[in-house]
Amino acid sequence: MKILVLGAAGAGKTTAVRAASEIAPVRTDAGATTAALDFGRVSLGPRRLYLFGAPGQSRFWFRWPDLVQGADVALVVVDSRRITDAYPVLDAVEGLRMPFAIGVNCFDGLLGRPLPDVRWALTVRDGVLVHPFDARSVESVRELLGHVARVGTGETAEPATLVDGPRAASTL
Ligand SMILES: Nc1nc2c(ncn2[C@@H]2O[C@H](COP(=O)(O)OP(=O)(O)OP(=O)(O)O)[C@@H](O)[C@H]2O)c(=O)[nH]1
Ligand SMILES: [Mg+2]
Hints:
Elements: E1 2-7, H1 13-20, E2 29-30, E3 33-34, E4 38-44, E5 47-53, H2 64-68, E6 73-79, H3 87-94, E7 100-105, H4 115-122, E8 130-133, H5 138-153, H6 166-170
Parallel strand pairs: 1-5, 1-6, 6-7, 7-8
Antiparallel strand pairs: 2-3, 4-5
Protein backbone atom coordinates (compact mmCIF):
# COMPACT_ATOMS: atom_id res chain seq x y z
CA MET A 1 0.00 0.00 0.00
CA LYS A 2 1.28 3.43 -0.93
CA ILE A 3 0.72 6.15 1.66
CA LEU A 4 1.28 9.79 0.83
CA VAL A 5 2.46 11.79 3.85
CA LEU A 6 1.50 15.45 3.61
CA GLY A 7 1.49 18.42 5.97
CA ALA A 8 2.75 21.94 6.51
CA ALA A 9 6.49 22.63 6.83
CA GLY A 10 7.75 21.55 10.24
CA ALA A 11 4.66 19.48 11.09
CA GLY A 12 6.75 16.34 11.70
CA LYS A 13 6.51 14.34 8.43
CA THR A 14 10.22 13.56 8.14
CA THR A 15 10.37 12.77 11.87
CA ALA A 16 7.46 10.33 11.59
CA VAL A 17 8.73 8.55 8.46
CA ARG A 18 12.22 8.19 9.98
CA ALA A 19 10.84 6.93 13.29
CA ALA A 20 8.78 4.15 11.74
CA SER A 21 10.73 3.13 8.65
CA GLU A 22 12.44 -0.26 8.57
CA ILE A 23 14.83 0.81 5.86
CA ALA A 24 17.49 3.49 6.04
CA PRO A 25 15.75 6.75 5.24
CA VAL A 26 16.69 8.54 2.05
CA ARG A 27 17.82 11.96 3.14
CA THR A 28 16.57 14.72 0.90
CA ASP A 29 16.50 17.55 3.41
CA ALA A 30 17.99 20.87 2.39
CA GLY A 31 18.86 22.36 5.75
CA ALA A 32 15.88 21.88 8.06
CA THR A 33 13.24 21.31 5.41
CA THR A 34 12.55 18.49 2.96
CA ALA A 35 13.21 19.45 -0.65
CA ALA A 36 12.33 16.22 -2.48
CA LEU A 37 10.66 13.47 -0.49
CA ASP A 38 10.85 11.21 2.53
CA PHE A 39 10.66 7.53 1.71
CA GLY A 40 10.06 4.76 4.19
CA ARG A 41 8.74 1.22 4.46
CA VAL A 42 6.77 -0.23 7.35
CA SER A 43 5.50 -3.82 7.78
CA LEU A 44 2.24 -4.07 9.67
CA GLY A 45 1.10 -7.67 9.96
CA PRO A 46 0.82 -9.04 6.40
CA ARG A 47 0.82 -5.54 4.96
CA ARG A 48 3.75 -3.59 3.58
CA LEU A 49 3.26 0.16 3.73
CA TYR A 50 5.34 2.39 1.52
CA LEU A 51 5.51 5.94 2.82
CA PHE A 52 6.11 8.87 0.51
CA GLY A 53 6.49 12.13 2.39
CA ALA A 54 6.00 15.26 0.33
CA PRO A 55 7.76 18.51 1.17
CA GLY A 56 5.66 20.86 3.30
CA GLN A 57 6.82 24.09 1.74
CA SER A 58 4.43 25.05 -1.03
CA ARG A 59 7.30 26.04 -3.32
CA PHE A 60 8.02 22.30 -3.67
CA TRP A 61 4.43 21.23 -4.29
CA PHE A 62 4.97 20.99 -8.03
CA ARG A 63 6.32 17.52 -7.21
CA TRP A 64 2.99 16.37 -5.78
CA PRO A 65 1.47 15.05 -9.02
CA ASP A 66 4.29 12.49 -9.29
CA LEU A 67 4.00 11.47 -5.66
CA VAL A 68 0.22 11.15 -5.88
CA GLN A 69 0.45 8.57 -8.70
CA GLY A 70 -0.76 5.23 -7.40
CA ALA A 71 -1.20 6.37 -3.80
CA ASP A 72 -3.95 4.53 -1.90
CA VAL A 73 -4.42 7.01 0.91
CA ALA A 74 -2.96 10.25 2.26
CA LEU A 75 -1.90 11.01 5.82
CA VAL A 76 -1.94 14.70 6.70
CA VAL A 77 0.40 15.48 9.60
CA VAL A 78 -0.72 18.48 11.65
CA ASP A 79 1.22 20.30 14.37
CA SER A 80 -1.25 20.54 17.27
CA ARG A 81 0.09 24.01 18.15
CA ARG A 82 -0.36 25.43 14.65
CA ILE A 83 -3.59 24.01 13.28
CA THR A 84 -4.28 26.79 10.79
CA ASP A 85 -0.97 26.00 9.03
CA ALA A 86 -2.68 22.82 7.83
CA TYR A 87 -5.47 24.59 5.93
CA PRO A 88 -3.70 24.93 2.55
CA VAL A 89 -2.66 21.27 2.66
CA LEU A 90 -6.16 20.15 3.69
CA ASP A 91 -7.66 22.17 0.84
CA ALA A 92 -5.19 20.53 -1.55
CA VAL A 93 -5.76 16.98 -0.26
CA GLU A 94 -9.52 17.35 -0.53
CA GLY A 95 -8.95 18.06 -4.22
CA LEU A 96 -6.92 14.88 -4.71
CA ARG A 97 -10.00 12.65 -4.56
CA MET A 98 -8.33 10.01 -2.48
CA PRO A 99 -9.13 8.88 1.05
CA PHE A 100 -7.14 10.63 3.74
CA ALA A 101 -6.65 10.67 7.48
CA ILE A 102 -5.18 13.26 9.83
CA GLY A 103 -2.44 12.65 12.38
CA VAL A 104 -2.18 15.38 15.01
CA ASN A 105 1.45 15.49 16.09
CA CYS A 106 1.29 16.23 19.80
CA PHE A 107 4.79 17.69 20.17
CA ASP A 108 5.98 16.26 23.50
CA GLY A 109 2.74 14.45 24.10
CA LEU A 110 0.85 17.61 24.92
CA LEU A 111 -2.16 18.37 22.83
CA GLY A 112 -2.74 22.11 23.13
CA ARG A 113 -6.51 21.58 23.24
CA PRO A 114 -9.00 18.72 23.59
CA LEU A 115 -9.33 16.52 20.49
CA PRO A 116 -12.94 17.61 19.68
CA ASP A 117 -11.71 21.22 19.56
CA VAL A 118 -8.86 20.21 17.28
CA ARG A 119 -11.34 18.39 15.05
CA TRP A 120 -13.56 21.45 14.92
CA ALA A 121 -10.61 23.74 14.13
CA LEU A 122 -9.54 21.43 11.29
CA THR A 123 -13.07 21.58 9.83
CA VAL A 124 -13.00 18.18 8.21
CA ARG A 125 -15.96 15.98 7.36
CA ASP A 126 -17.39 13.89 10.19
CA GLY A 127 -15.99 10.60 8.94
CA VAL A 128 -12.39 11.75 8.47
CA LEU A 129 -10.12 10.03 10.96
CA VAL A 130 -8.31 12.47 13.27
CA HIS A 131 -5.79 10.69 15.47
CA PRO A 132 -3.29 12.18 17.92
CA PHE A 133 0.24 10.78 17.81
CA ASP A 134 3.89 11.45 18.60
CA ALA A 135 6.00 11.67 15.44
CA ARG A 136 9.14 10.66 17.33
CA SER A 137 7.74 7.39 18.68
CA VAL A 138 7.91 4.20 16.61
CA GLU A 139 4.93 2.67 18.42
CA SER A 140 2.86 5.80 18.07
CA VAL A 141 3.57 6.21 14.34
CA ARG A 142 2.90 2.49 13.73
CA GLU A 143 -0.42 2.70 15.55
CA LEU A 144 -1.40 5.72 13.47
CA LEU A 145 -0.36 3.95 10.26
CA GLY A 146 -2.61 1.02 11.19
CA HIS A 147 -5.56 3.41 11.21
CA VAL A 148 -4.43 5.07 7.99
CA ALA A 149 -4.11 1.69 6.26
CA ARG A 150 -7.69 0.84 7.23
CA VAL A 151 -8.83 4.14 5.70
CA GLY A 152 -6.88 3.19 2.57
CA THR A 153 -8.59 -0.18 2.24
CA GLY A 154 -12.00 1.35 2.83
CA GLU A 155 -12.51 -0.52 6.12
CA THR A 156 -13.14 2.88 7.73
CA ALA A 157 -16.20 4.53 6.22
CA GLU A 158 -16.22 8.19 5.28
CA PRO A 159 -19.63 9.88 5.61
CA ALA A 160 -19.91 12.99 3.48
CA THR A 161 -21.15 15.72 5.81
CA LEU A 162 -19.31 19.01 5.82
CA VAL A 163 -18.88 20.62 9.22
CA ASP A 164 -18.76 24.35 9.74
CA GLY A 165 -15.65 25.78 11.29
CA PRO A 166 -13.08 28.53 11.01
CA ARG A 167 -11.60 27.21 7.78
CA ALA A 168 -14.99 27.19 6.05
CA ALA A 169 -15.73 30.66 7.43
CA SER A 170 -12.39 32.08 6.30
CA THR A 171 -13.01 31.05 2.70
CA LEU A 172 -16.42 32.75 2.49
N1 LIG B 1 9.66 18.37 20.50
C1 LIG B 1 9.22 17.80 19.39
N2 LIG B 1 9.81 18.11 18.23
C2 LIG B 1 9.34 17.54 17.11
C3 LIG B 1 8.26 16.64 17.11
N3 LIG B 1 8.01 16.26 15.83
C4 LIG B 1 8.91 16.91 15.09
N4 LIG B 1 9.72 17.67 15.84
C5 LIG B 1 10.81 18.55 15.38
O1 LIG B 1 10.21 19.54 14.58
C6 LIG B 1 11.09 19.88 13.51
C7 LIG B 1 10.39 19.71 12.17
O2 LIG B 1 10.07 18.34 11.98
P1 LIG B 1 10.20 17.64 10.54
O3 LIG B 1 9.84 16.21 10.76
O4 LIG B 1 11.50 17.94 9.89
O5 LIG B 1 9.04 18.40 9.77
P2 LIG B 1 8.56 18.17 8.27
O6 LIG B 1 7.08 18.03 8.35
O7 LIG B 1 9.30 17.08 7.63
O8 LIG B 1 8.90 19.58 7.62
P3 LIG B 1 9.24 19.93 6.06
O9 LIG B 1 10.22 18.92 5.57
O10 LIG B 1 9.81 21.32 6.13
O11 LIG B 1 7.96 19.92 5.32
C8 LIG B 1 12.32 18.99 13.64
O12 LIG B 1 13.33 19.73 14.31
C9 LIG B 1 11.82 17.85 14.51
O13 LIG B 1 12.86 17.29 15.28
C10 LIG B 1 7.63 16.32 18.36
O14 LIG B 1 6.69 15.55 18.46
N5 LIG B 1 8.15 16.95 19.45
MG1 LIG C 1 10.53 17.06 6.08
